[in-house]
């Protein structure tokens, strides 16, 4: 994406990935939605477009909740950090689309930090209800300017699966494969969002049984 493109109004959502490897994985399943690399800790968030239907933070994350296992997907219903919590519209609708494609998905609050979360801090955030941590989503949400925001994170590490461990490489490869499968569901959700069908979709997800602690798989 050129600088000129970055400021051109876009009809659909735009995916925001912190790392190039995350962006490459997400792009594999996308045909219409652009992906912008915003850098580690979203230091290049100035690359985000001035207008689009929604901003979607996507990539890897660390689980705070032991119910989330490596390879699981968390769709945030709230992004915490920065200036305060930001609700994510139609999170359950997006989760439902991902489940349709055979992914193991849960919904719940996501917290953004500027550092790797240690064991004590992990427990503190979890006690407050946060289910996963990342380093970019709240920064992206702060730039949304009233536009809908979504966050989709694939678990790489968490309780019982430390980041600094030989198994992290294998978990990272597996998480990248999961991330590469999210594209079709994201495009279906984006089409609903643009058409207005996902504007108040959370209730539909609740009716399908997708709750904060529930995992839905085929």
Automatic annotation (TrEMBL):
Domain spans labelled Nucleoside phosphorylase: 11-162
Coiled coil: none
This protein's name: 1-hydroxy-2-methyl-2-butenyl 4-diphosphate reductase
Source organism of this protein record: Actinomadura graeca
